[in-house]
Specification:
Elements lengths: L2 H9 L4 H22 L2 H18 L8 H22 L5 H9 L10 H17 L2 H11 L5 H8 L3 H21 L5
Helix pairs in contact: 1-2, 2-3, 2-4, 3-4, 6-9, 7-9, 8-9
Length: 183
């Protein structure tokens, strides 16, 4: 079933939309949630929450790519859950990723204009990266892969991935400073 057909099911308020979403993108959402949260039970909770949010958001939204939309919803929900857990002093992968980016990305708290400008600056940075570096960066900071997992998937050494990430973070900091963002 295509994304458009599944979105049409959401618009028709057919519960089969959830089943089709699970069938097509359930594994992707579980993988994202598990990498961020680290535990099966919490990941399952995030995936179920993702389906609820999709049900409540479609309609009125009509995403062109249900895959990208579901992945983004799941990622945001998992990060929110990780943040709440961190506030309770239980730790997790999200804190590790945030700590790595602390030196180059300003705090996103602020008004909507600042957040949108930061998002545009980040997108510009990602477009400027060579393909392999962009893949490494996104796998680490969007999908929460470990350096070892990235290295294995790309046929690189772990130290090559770590070096690429370090260079990319330095480049990101310079790019954001050039765009007017400071820490």
């Amino acid at each position: 079933m295509t994304d458009r057909e599944i979105v049409d099911l959401y618009w028709a308020r057919a519960e089969s939309a959830l089943e089709e979403t699970e069938r097509k993108y359930g594994a992707l959402c579980r993988n994202i949630a598990l990498r961020i949260l680290g535990g099966q039970e919490e990941a399952a909770e995030a995936v179920n929450g993702t389906y609820l949010r999709l049900w409540n958001a479609i309609p009125p939204k009509r995403p062109d790519s249900l895959k990208a939309y579901a992945a983004a919803v799941c990622r945001h929900l998992a990060l929110d859950m990780a943040e709440k857990r961190a506030a309770q002093k239980r730790g997790g992968a999200a804190e590790t990723l945030a700590a790595e980016l602390d030196e180059c990305v300003p705090d996103p708290a602020g008004d909507l204009t600042d957040s949108l400008a930061l998002r545009e600056a980040l997108n510009g940075f990602l477009r400027s990266l060579p393909d392999r570096t962009r893949v490494i960066f996104l796998r680490r900071y969007w999908y929460a892969w470990t350096a070892a997992e990235i290295a294995e998937s790309l046929g690189l050494s772990e130290s090559a991935v770590t070096s690429a990430l370090c260079r990319a973070r330095k480049s990101l900091k310079k790019h954001l400073e050039k765009e007017g963002f400071t820490l």
